[in-house]
Structures are given as structure tokens and as C-alpha cells.
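pipeline: protein-struct stage 2 | run 1193 | ABC transporter ATP-binding protein
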Amino acid sequence: KNLKKYFPKKKGLLGGNKSYVKAVDDVSFTIRKGETLGLVGESGCGKSTTGRMLMKLLDPTEGQILFEGQDITGLSDNQIRTIRKEFQMVFQDPYASLNPRMKVGEIIEEPLIVHGYPKEKRQERVLHLLEVVGLSAYHADRYPHEFSGGQRQRVGIARALAVNPKLIIADEPVSALDVSIQSQILNLLKDLQEEFELTYLFIAHDLSVVEHISDRVGVMYLGKIVELTDKETLYKEPLHPYTKALLSAVPIPNPRLKRERILLKGDIPSPSNPPSGCTFHTRCPFATEECSKKVPKLKEIAKGHFVSCHLY
Ligand code: SF4
Ligand code: MG
């Protein structure tokens, strides 16, 4: 609810007023039980920062995080311990997030130890988790460097599942993998969601990755959500010019349905110095004078379809 994360900027030589990089700037959304909410945007749009705040890895500057109705924003590590295991994270780079000196079995066992899982049952649990993600007992005694990228991500997923979480925040879990492996991991995540009644926040930088896995999708630009709706609507009738531009870059199988390609002018501006008014106006093909002056609000223009653009 109204989440903000402002990072203080390094001061110049002359000091001066404190200024901030608005990495996440007033973001609100709900993740419904059992769904996958995709969160999409170019690098630097604040999607990972949002995920890290939900995981309590970063404290928000402002705003609230509610989990099953409980405000967990201000809770200390100690207070949050009991609900901590309900949400787990899967990271983009499975290699960087796996300790190279630990055997894979130990990596998966670690959260079980942290959360007090009975010692005599841990080994059995680890073997079960390996099977659940398509690996086997053979892999337990190996080190991460002996694994392929896809296998390492399976280990990362097994570790996230170890303590039976309800919510998994997956931050670009397939971005570092070969395209041929991506769909295997996406299918695995989908199967696991059904089997264990998981809820996902799935972060990605392009719309093609989240299309098959998401129920709803939010599009972020420079720290804000610019459009949020169910998947069918977003892919068929995108409204925000930025969503349209992102979608026009996604290849579609039937060339006769080809969308008109919308090319954006220039690069994404720095979040440390965002444009005035609608922060997308410097790149938007539909921008009018109003756009550089007035900040558009995220409005619900049809049931469950939120857009922030003066055109609507
Ligand atoms: Fe483009 Fe203006 Fe809409 Fe922003 S408010 S997306 S600049 S038309
Ligand atoms: Mg990121």
C-alpha cells in the first residue's frame, strides 16, 4: 500500500540539499491467494526493490506491507520470525545465490535448520524436495558448480520450497537461463504452484516471459505502476502507451496478427532525475503539453483495469 523507497543520493562536492533517488514511488497492489502476479519493466524501474521490500530485505521509506491482513511493515526480525517462512524468494542468478562451498543437500537443508525442522526428518525432506524439482538423491552430495544453470535454479526453487511457504517472490528466475531451459523452469514453477497451492509474485523485464505464467500483470516505469490488469486484457487491449510499446516488441507466432511496432524515443531516464509530469512523456509517442506538467494518477478505468495516463 503506497510503498515508497527513496535512496539518498550521494552529495556533490558542495553538499547542498539532500536529494533522493525515488526507486519505488507510491506503488500499491494486491497479490491474491493462489495467483501469479507478474511485475514487468525495464531494469531500474523498481520491480526488484519492490520485491525486496515485500520480502522484508529492505525497509520501505513509506507505505505498508500487509500479509494475510496483518501489517508487517514495522515488525522486527524477531517479531517476524514465525511468519517469515511463509514467503520465500527465488533469485535471478542461481549461482550467485547458492553457497559454492556447500553441498546441494546442505543448501536445501539450511532453511529447515533455521526454522527448527526436526533433525531426524530433515534428510527425508531434502530428498523429497530434490525429487519435487526434478533432481534426485544423487545430486544431494554435489556442489553447485557441478550443475547446469537450469539445475541450479531447480536447487534454488527446492530451497525456497523447503519450509512450505505460501508466497514465492521470483525475481527474474529465468533471465539468466538459455531460452530452451526457460520454459522448463516456467513449467516447473507452474506445476509446483498447483501441487503446493503457492502464490507467486513473478518479476521479469519483458512481457513474453510472464505471459504464460501470470494471472494478472503490472507494468512498472520509473518507480511507478503504469498499468495493472488481468493477463487477457493486458495482452489483447493494452491501454498505456508504455505497455503498448513493450508488447509491440514481443514476437507473436501469427504474423497476420502483427501489432504495429511502437518504437520509443531515447533511453529510460535516470530515476535520480525523473522527467516532470508523466515520467514517460520524454519517450511517449502520444505525449501532449499537459503530459509534461501534470502527473497522471493510477485510475481504475474498467473493473480491475488500472491505468495512469491522461489519455484515459
Ligand atoms: Fe503518454 Fe501523456 Fe499518457 Fe504519459 S500521460 S503515457 S506522456 S499520453
Ligand atoms: Mg532487478
